[in-house]
Amino acid sequence: MNQKLISLNAVKTALARLAGLSLLAFSVSVVAAPPVPTLSTPYNGATNVSQSNVRFSWYSSGATSYRLVISQNSSFSGFRDVNGSSTCDSTCFTIATSSTSYTKNMDFSGQTYYWKVRANNSTGASSFSGYRYFTTAGTATAQKVWPLTSHSNIPFGVGSYNFGSYHTGIDIMTTLNTPVYAMCKGTVMLNKTNNPYSTAYDNYWNSFLIIKHDCNGDIIYGYYGHLSSTLATNSSVSANQVIGSIRMAKTTTGADYPGNNHLHFGLNKSYLSSGWGYASSLSAVTSLGWVNPKTYLP
Q: How many domains, in total, are found in the chain?
């Protein structure tokens, strides 16, 4: 009986010790997500920065990797970060790195760049830091780009006669949802692309985005027709920034007309509140200040 009692006590003691060991073995220290990185160089507002070998540096604790984003505009509008996938359009650059610094040759002289960093570890990610900005040395690079990467199919140019009137711009044939790019940097003056009219036909034919462009000191207004855009009035855009996409063409009855999907692109030295697509006469096209994009753009 005593032997059984002793054996039972020994088993209890062994189980207690085992339980204690198990608790120790399975104790887990929780790793917190890293804090927001602190940006170091280039210094905020720095000017005359050499285009070559610009060193971006920052510091943080508890991080195993970082996401660096460099943009030509302070809204970082070309950066997309969806479901763990980070991408940039032509107005920005992004890279993941395990280092707290990165060196890059910048594309343009006289260009203001904006940059920010996010820290990551196995638990999660911090928020992005606030941005810093700097300007590269030299004269601003003249940038004029076509609003569509493919622009050879132009059935109606400036002055073409159609619908009983004379065309003020050019039509560039393309496909639905093709991205449209800003010709130069500028400011959005008007966005009439978000279906303010009562019919599908009117919402298509009158869907214009008007941007006041600064093409290296030359002020000219871009009239982008038949697109969808979320840009707000008075917002800034960079040259070659995506400003919208081609919407579905419509017939007078409101039916889809995919064979007619195109961008109407007009240029004028002045801001006009109406008459964006057509003028009453050929002479009016000139007197109203319309400029032929085919001769203005490279």
A: 2
Q: Is residue 143 part of a domain?
A: no
pLDDT digits (tens, 9 = 90+) for 121-148: 999 999 999 999 999 998 766 568 899 9
The SS3 of residue 20 is helix
C-alpha dist (Å) from residue 129 to 36, 78, 115, 186: 6, 17, 9, 26
Token digits for 252?
């007078």
CATH of the domain at 47: 2.60.40.10
- As a whole number of angstroms, the distance between CA 44 and CA 36 comes to 17
Q: Domain range spanning residue 101?
A: 38-136
Among 141, 167, 188, smallest CA distance to 298 is for 141
Q: Are residues 115 and 180 in the same domain?
A: no
CATH of the domain at 217: 2.70.70.10
Query: Domain for residue 186, yes or no?
Result: yes
Query: Per-residue pLDDT tens for 238-280?
Result: 888 899 999 999 988 889 999 999 999 999 999 999 999 999 9
- CA-closest candidate to residue 265, choices 216, 187, 211, 218: 211
Q: Give the DSSP H/E element, type plus range, for residue 66.
A: strand 65-71
Of 244, 245, 238, 297, which Cα lies nearest the Cα of 91?
Answer: 238
Q: Are strands 262-268 and 170-173 parallel, antiparallel or unpaired?
A: antiparallel
Amino acid at 29: S
**pTM to 2 decimals?**
0.58
At 115, list the tokens. 């940059």
